[in-house]
Write a structure and sequence with these properties.
heterodimer, A: 289 residues, 11 helices, B: 319 residues, mainly alpha, ABC transporter involved in vitamin B12 uptake, BtuC, 1% strand, globular
């Protein structure tokens, strides 16, 4: 029983990161109708950012968020200006298709660049407190992963508040609902796109930082994290960041359950199968609101 | 096809078919084999993405299914061609399953669905068939590279001929109409779902055959390698660099890509992906017609410099 509980707890802990990874993808897709399949590679870069900050200057990975997030914001703005901003002049279907292709090429290039720069080795940050564990009734909670879950929740909660109360947050939501109507009320839609894309990228950077401390990173984790984020978006739908977070927790628990039933190597498959089942069972569209 | 270009094509095929009789160097034959196999692979992706406009990000699934089925049947004693046909049929069966689900929806569903399918296969096959697959000693003793080469040549010719026939047929025109605007195509009486499924069947059957040829060629590999996303990357990059939605594009793209991939691999593993990934993004943004469009533009420039009327073909819009 304790073993089962332990697995479920670990599932929830990683599920928080799935939610955070998906939040950025969901925000960008919901607002811009741009599907960035290089989202996982952005997470990978965020992870390396935190890793090198720790390795070279000894900066604590949680403190590194203060550096990684602003850098990722700027990086997101550059990606928008240089690449993804070009596709928003097309209508929705073409936008999705072209952004898929651009993300595909970008992901490949980033992956190959990371292999060249940092080799294909797996890395993770080992802090002084990496081994500390909280014991709650026989179930052990790794402190680092618990902190990651809390930070993921705080970031998503913060985003939720921003979207509801900040001027530009409301503009982003209006643009997501109906960009033409938003344009007519005087909203600078392109600016809203830019801000949404930058925030989405910053969330990817934050997720990568947390992955590098509680788990491990390598240049090839990109595809895996993109798929996790896509699965969560499919489960949770668009429009609610808290819903996305919940979707992440559900995926984490579902993976933990399947690992117990079918064995560890198949934990990656369950999410993909859920994804295909939803695809078949919900013909009205995966990304329903 | 004009008689002149058909005759030129026949001469080229005949010359390529004679190569193993004249050339004894295995490295050259291996290189040409890879080029031919890549032409067929790129062309198979071109059918669904270039003509029908549906981006398949999990092409490796169908390549891999064809390869795995062929390998198993062939090693068990079935003639390789029968094995390849069986492999292609299995690939088509899974393609219909995912296509039936995803094509009723628009947008990204097909791309993500195929991506998910290929990852499911890669992980599952990696877990269930973890052992390396090596040909039996008796087969290795009688291994003849020329046979593999001729098979790849036949596949490349088949793929090019299929796309050439499709491009000018009623079916192919309907697919291109869907690519440009699915609603408008539907309004003019095109059965979009049916045509997309037909394109998918043609595309994945070819991919399955190409996979089968690879399984016949390669002496040993890990079964999960057959489902590696690398196969999808190769197909997408070659097709786009050459010119997506054109007959010549994937051929040019495959020659260009394989040449530089082999050249760069001598010094840096996977370095080509950095260059080609960046090149691919530039092509999607700036030159959607790839090398074919670039050559057309160059020809247009030369002709207008010579004071002849500009007869540049319309720019292919696949966006």
């Amino acid at each position: 029983m304790t073993i089962v509980l332990q697995q479920l707890v670990l599932g929830v802990l990683i599920g928080g990161l799935y939610g955070l990874a998906a939040a950025g993808l969901s925000l960008i897709f919901g607002v811009m109708k741009v599907l960035n399949v290089a989202h996982g590679e952005l997470i990978m870069l965020g992870g390396y950012g935190a890793f090198w900050l720790f390795a070279l200057s000894g900066l604590d990975p949680f403190a590194a968020l203060v550096v990684v997030i602003p850098v990722a914001l700027v990086g997101g703005a550059i990606l928008y200006w240089g690449l993804f901003g070009w596709v928003v002049r097309y209508h929705e279907e073409t936008r999705i298709k072209n952004s898929l292709l651009i993300g595909f090429g970008l992901g490949l290039a980033l992956h190959a660049a990371a292999v060249q720069l940092w080799t294909a080795d797996e890395r993770s940050i080992t802090t002084a407190y990496a081994g500390s564990v909280l014991d709650v009734g026989g179930v052990s909670l790794p402190v680092v992963r618990l902190a990651s879950l809390v930070i993921a929740f705080v970031l998503i909660g913060g985003l939720h508040l921003l979207l509801n109360h900040w001027r530009w947050g409301r503009a982003i939501r209006a643009t997501a609902d109906d960009w033409e109507a938003a344009l007519m009320t005087g909203i600078d839609v392109r600016r809203a796109y830019l801000i949404a894309f930058a925030i989405g990228t910053a969330l990817a950077g934050a997720a990568g930082t947390l992955v590098s401390v509680g788990y491990s990173i390598s240049p090839s984790i990109g595809l895996e994290w993109t798929l996790k984020a896509l699965i969560v978006v499919v489960l949770a739908g668009l429009g609610s960041m808290l819903g996305t977070f919940a979707g992440g927790l559900i995926l984490g628990v579902a993976e933990a359950c399947s690992a117990m039933v079918f064995g560890g190597p198949y934990r990656e498959v369950v999410g993909l199968v859920i994804f295909l089942v939803v695809l078949v069972a919900r013909p009205q569209g995966l990304f329903a609101k | 096809m004009r008689p002149a270009s058909a005759a030129a094509g026949l001469v080229i095929v005949a010359a390529l078919a004679a190569v193993p009789l004249v050339v004894r160097r295995e490295d050259i034959l291996n290189f040409l084999f890879l080029v031919l196999l890549s032409i067929a692979l790129a062309q198979s992706w071109n059918v669904i993405a270039g003509y029908a406009g549906q981006v398949n990000l999990g092409h490796a699934a169908f390549f891999g299914l064809g390869a795995l089925v062929t390998r198993v049947l062939w090693i068990a004693g079935t003639p390789v061609v029968i094995g390849m046909i069986a492999g292609a049929l299995v690939a088509v069966a899974f393609a219909l399953l995912i296509g039936w689900a995803a094509f009723r929806l628009r947008g990204a569903y097909f791309a993500i669905g195929t991506l998910a399918l290929s990852e499911i296969f890669r992980i599952t096959v990696g877990n269930t068939l973890a052992e390396i697959s090596t040909l039996p000693q008796t087969t290795i003793a009688t291994y003849r590279l020329a046979n593999r080469y001729w098979l790849a040549l036949a596949l490349a010719v088949l793929a090019i001929a299929a796309v050439a026939a499709l491009a000018r047929s009623r079916l192919g025109l309907g697919m291109q109409a869907i690519r440009e605007d699915e609603d408008a195509a539907g309004a003019t009486g095109v059965d979009a779902l049916r045509l997309k499924l037909i394109a998918l069947v043609c595309s994945t059957a070819l991919a399955g055959l190409v996979g089968g040829c690879f399984a016949y060629y390669h002496i040993s590999f890990y079964p999960s390698h057959l489902f590696s996303p690398g196969w999808t990357f190769d197909a997408v990059l070659m097709t786009f660099i050459g010119g997506v939605g054109t007959l010549h594009g994937p051929v040019l793209g495959a020659i260009f890509y394989v040449f530089f991939k082999e050249y760069l691999a001598i010094r840096w593993v996977d370095f080509h992906l950095l260059i080609f990934g960046a090149l691919f993004v530039a092509i999607v943004l700036l030159l959607p017609g790839g090398l074919v469009e670039a050559m057309g533009k160059l020809r247009g420039l030369l002709e207008s410099a010579a004071f002849t009327p500009d007869r540049r073909r319309p720019r292919p819009e696949h966006r």
